[in-house]
Design a protein that fits this description.
The structure is a single chain. By secondary structure, the protein is an all-alpha fold. Among the domains are: 39 residues; 33 residues. It is built from 4 helices and no strands.
Length: 105
């Protein structure tokens, strides 16, 4: 290899290493400043909205549960997965008789 090519390659490697080191230092400095407990200002959360909800769960767990998803929800999830798989390259050239029917709820 000519010496000029070696010098160019070493320069590119040095520039890349310098850039990565600078980004690493930037990330570390930002992280240290963000998580420095001495600089935390402190912010309280508002629990007035949470208290009634927690009490409701303590009194009656079943009433506080979200309603169960219906069969239409599950069928739509299956159809969504079917479409995602059908878009893969392996399934593009399949004959129409092998394609799954599209069902509606």
């Amino acid at each position: 290899m000519p010496s000029l090519e070696v010098i160019i390659r070493l320069t590119v490697v040095a520039a890349l290493a310098s850039f990565l080191y600078a980004k690493h230092r930037q990330r570390v400095r930002g992280r240290l400043w963000r998580y420095n407990p001495a600089k935390w200002t402190g912010k309280a959360i508002d629990v007035t909205e949470l208290k009634p909800r927690i009490e409701g769960v303590r009194r009656n767990y079943l009433a506080a549960q979200q309603p169960a998803k219906g069969i239409c929800f599950h069928r739509s999830l299956i159809e969504l997965a079917r479409r995602a798989v059908a878009q893969m390259a392996y399934f593009h050239d399949r004959p129409p008789e092998h394609r799954a029917p599209v069902g509606r709820c």
